[in-house]
Each structure stands twice: as C-alpha cells, then as structure tokens.
Design goal:
475 residues, mainly alpha
Length: 475
C-alpha cells in the first residue's frame, strides 16, 4: 500500500529537498504528474445556436409537413434559442445589446396596432413583426466578434450549398420530400412551401458567396455558385430571375464605382438601360407567346416558369394588383384594413381571384395605412444607408474587410429584395432579416474607428470587437 502513495516532497512548498541517510542507495526520482490539459470547447453554445439557427431558416415545411399554428415553424423555435443565447452572451460580457432597425419596426408595429384595434383583426401579425426583428438583432450583436461573424457567413454558404445539392438530387431522383416539387407543377419549393420563397433564399446565398469570396479557391467558388444557381433555376421563379439579373448588373456597377471607375459604370448603366428599354418595347409590341411556348416544351420547369410569363403568371398578378389598388382607393380611413387582412377582405368582397397581397409596397399602405407606408420608407432608408456606408472604399477595418472583401454585393442583394417586393412580400422573409443582421454587424462594428478610437456607432466607454475576450470567440 505504501508503494502506491507518493512520497511527500518539500519541493512543492518551496523547501529544499531532504538529504538521503548515509549509506542509503539513491532514491529514484519520481517525475511530477503532468498538469491536465485545459478543457476547450471547440463548439461553444453560442456557435451551435448560431449555426442551427441559420440551418433552420428554410425549414418552414420540411418533408412537406404543414406549418404550425399562426404559420410558425422550426425557424421560430430556433430563433427563441438563438435570441436567448445571444442575450446571455452579451450580458455575461457586459456588452450593450444593439437593436438595429428598431425604430422602423416599432413604427410598423404601431401602425399595425392601430389598424388591428380599429378593425379588430390582425393582432397576431404584430408579434411576428417583432419576432423577425430578433433575427437581425441576434446576428448583428454576435457579429461584434469577428469570429462569430465569420462563422455566420460560412454557415450561410456551406448550409445553403448543401441544401441546393439536396434539392437538385431530389428533382433528379424524383424524391419530392427532398425537392419539395409542386403537386400541380414542376417547380421546386424545397422546404419553404413556396417556390418564390426558395428562389429568394438561394439568391441570398449566391450573393453572400460573391461578397465573402468563400470558398477561397476560384474554381471551388464558381462550382458553388453554379450549384446554387441551378437550384434557383429549378424553382422556376420569374420574379426571382428578374431580381437576380437586376442585382448582378447593380453589383457590377457598384464595384466599378467603388474602384473609382465612375465613367465605366455610367457607360455600362446606359447600355443596360438601352437594352432593357429595347426589350420592353419588343415585348409590348410583338406577340412573343409562341416563342415562349416553344421554349417551354424543352423542359417542364421552363413550362411552369417562362411559359407563364405572358399568360397565367402575368394575369394572376395583374388581377391581385388591380384588386388591392381598388381596395386602397376605396379606403376612407387612414389606418388601413388591418395587418394580413388582404385575403379575408377579398373573400368578404367576393373577388374572383383571392390571394394575399403580392406587393410589399401596396400591402404596407393598404393594411397599415399612411403610417405603415412611412414605416416602410424608413426601413428602406436605413437599409440603404447601412449598405452605402459599408460599401465605401476602405470603410471596413482590415479584419472585417477580410471577411467581406466585396461588401458592395450586399447592396446588390438588397436590390433583390427591393425588386422582389414588387411581386412578393419579401420584407417579411426570415432569412431576409438574418441578412439585414449581417449588414448591421458590418455597419455597427466593422467600420473603421472614429477619431477617438471607437468604431462608428459605439457609445463612449463601450467595449469593442478589439477586446481580448471577444477575439477569443464565444466561450
């Protein structure tokens, strides 16, 4: 038993070692046990919550399952966890929680609240308005740490590419649970339950790839872009295709301006305007439907996308816009018909084509009145202002500029939402507000320091992203 008990030594207490008795054999030196390695959590709770939250964004109707009460889904459950972890993360570090887009959101809620009280309908939508804001708040505050922002950006790219591969394989193999193929058509909806929603998601991932230049190898990056665009094409969204083309052009123009090539940008813009004008004149004067019919025979996806350009798609959206504009003109009160009440009001008025409002701009004024329109304009102004500030040459610090080498692509992605809002209600998409959080993170914490050494928008005395405990990541 005594052999198992190590001999006491005074070395640990700083005392000189005792001398061995005369004639005794020298004792073998017993090595000190090594100190146990420090425990390191390679996947802290904050990182797990962030990645799972981003991964949950498309999971509105996974495997065709219907949404929950109030059109809720897995992203809402994941957001509760992400918001809680974010607030704890900031609280344990005594960091102020920033609330980007809070003023326009409160304006939207107040406008909707007045309309809901007067019309006694649409109260649940107000909770959703505050809920989607938390996506931007959570990602923006975690973006205070460059490592967390890096994780968020790469999660969008990796997870988005994986989902694109799943959708493509589902279409090729005929597995509707993977592709989300429409029951009455050939368009892929993935797990969104709506092909236009899925199209907007893949376009978001595409522009995040372009902005971050991740993957780093050029051919890897082009392969990822090709996969994402293929998945977007399978959604058959005409509005998404139009928004993508406009955003690609604007992204190129923004890049030319950022590089100081304003004259090149003006020339390219003028050429694009001439081509677009010529195309619009041809479409309005020439019957192109026979050509579209021939093209649609090449693929079922083409039949359900461009094949409906001058037929069902245009007529349905024209009917919805005409109905909503008529309802807007008939309003005698300035507070609107109530949040998310366009469809019920169409049913009550016995319109022949009943749908939700397919236009964010009309819906904001129709459902929430004059104040709703002001709130929407305020939100767009704040978004555009933030995108302009981060896209200026040399605006970002080296650490954040390394994460987003082409921030002007975020401005192009914002244009996707602005154009798509003419055809769908995109300003309520969950992944859209997550993207707004990325923009806010770069604007609040990624821009170069003010003359007193603080990043723009950081209160005096606040700890910045350069603090040692932040650069080590969320622990």
């Amino acid at each position: 038993m005594t052999a198992l008990i190590p001999a006491r030594s005074g070395a640990r207490r700083g005392l000189p070692p005792r001398e061995a008795p005369a004639g005794a054999p020298p004792a073998a030196a017993s090595p000190e046990p090594p100190e146990p390695p420090a425990l390191r959590r390679r996947w802290p709770l904050t990182s797990v919550a962030l990645v799972l939250g981003i991964a949950s964004l498309p999971m509105l109707m996974p495997a065709g399952l219907p949404p929950g009460p109030g059109n809720t889904g897995l992203p809402d459950l994941a957001l509760i966890g992400l918001s809680t972890v974010t607030l704890l993360w900031a609280g344990t570090r005594r960091l102020p929680v920033r609330w980007p887009f809070l003023i326009p959101t409160l304006m939207t809620i107040i406008a909707g609240g007045i309309a809901a009280v007067v019309n006694q309908a649409g109260t649940l939508t107000l909770v959703k308005d505050l809920f989607v804001l938390m996506w931007a708040v959570s990602i923006a505050n975690l973006g205070r740490d460059p490592r967390m922002l890096r994780l968020a950006l790469r999660a969008f790219v990796v997870i988005g590419t994986f989902y694109a591969v799943v959708e493509i394989l589902g279409m090729l193999l005929g597995i509707e649970a993977m592709s989300g193929k429409q029951l009455d058509g050939e368009r892929a909806m993935f797990t969104f339950g709506d092909a236009n929603y899925a199209s907007n998601w893949f376009i978001c991932v595409f522009f995040i790839v372009r902005a971050t230049r991740y993957p780093r190898k050029t051919w890897h990056r082009w392969a990822v872009c090709a996969v994402i665009l293929a998945a977007e094409g399978l959604t058959g969204s005409n509005g998404g295709l139009l928004a993508l083309c406009v955003a690609l052009l604007l992204g190129y123009l923004f890049r030319l301006f950022r590089e100081g090539k304003a004259h090149h940008a003006l020339a390219v813009g003028a050429l694009a305007f001439l081509i677009a004008g010529t195309g619009a004149a041809v479409v309005t004067t020439v019957d192109i439907q026979p050509y579209l019919d021939q093209a649609s025979q090449m693929s079922p996806v083409l039949r359900d996308s461009i094949g409906r350009t001058t037929g069902e798609s245009t007529e349905s959206r024209s009917s919805v816009n005409a109905a909503t504009i008529q309802m807007l003109e008939e309003q005698t009160r300035p507070w609107g018909i109530g949040p998310n009440q366009t469809r019920p009001q169409m049913l009550a008025r016995q319109y022949g084509y009943v749908r939700e409002a397919h236009n964010d701009y009309i819906a904001a004024v129709l459902e929430r009145g004059f104040l709703g329109g002001v709130a929407l304009v305020t939100l767009l102004f704040v978004l555009i202002q933030r995108c302009v500030r981060i896209a200026r040459r040399g605006a970002l610090t080296p650490r954040y500029a390394a994460l987003v080498p082409h921030p002007e692509m975020f401005g192009a992605l914002l244009a996707v939402f602005l154009v798509s809002a003419l055809f769908y209600q995109t300003l309520h998409y969950r992944h859209g507000w997550a993207f707004f959080g990325l923009v806010a993170a770069l604007d609040l914490f990624g821009r170069r320091a003010a003359p007193d050494g603080r990043p723009p928008g950081t209160p005096a005395g606040s700890r910045t992203a350069d603090d040692p405990d932040l650069t080590e990541g969320a622990r």
